[in-house]
Give the backbone structure.
Amino acid sequence: MSAAIFAQTISPPWYQPVNARAYEPTNAGGLSAEGQLILAARRHDPAAFEALVRRHQGPLYNFCLRMLGQADDAADVAQETFVQLYSHLGRLDEREPLAPWLFRVARNRCIDVIRRRRTVPLGLPDDAGESTFIGEPADDDPLPEVVVERADLQRALSDAIAQLPPAYAEVVALRYAGDRSFAEIAMILDCDEGAARVRFHRAKALLRRHLRAGSDGPDFPRAQSVGDVPHA
């Protein structure tokens, strides 16, 4: 599936030409609007399911693009995630927010793609060490806004994220591209919120170092085995 097609709308097997915006659920039973959409989608209402897709497809695609660095791969993973959502509608808890589940599925699929590209195992940080780490240098400085906001420098940021160890790339992608809170990131990565924050700050320090050094700077160190992750 091409990224251009995905950017306009996705056309998976369930798609029918309906107006998703016309579906306006009421707050019956105390459920959120999203929860009511999930219930309606279970009843095979195509407008309800399309509304769910449109609600999440932008941040989810952006996350996949930051993780994978290739638009077509990102579009494929995003569509596969929504296909899995459709097949799992009956197992979801409509009282819970949908985004953490979607990003967890997309993250796992992105890791599968990255594994197929590489010959070395993906390193993962020691979450226990991160959550109990004392004295982590504060990294409250944002990435240069000129990089985050200017379209002509987005490629530089994407390239820098792509060079991070995957465990760091995913937390940056979730925060910046997926626009997730640290509480949501912790749910998606199955760690505590403190560990998610520490991992993000370490990743941000690596990104800043790379962006300041320019394209001729040294690559980020790569993890060679599980648990062997470079520290910022």
The chain has eleven helices and no strands. The mean pLDDT is 75. The first helix runs from residue 3 to 8. The CA atoms of residues 27 and 33 lie 7 Å apart.
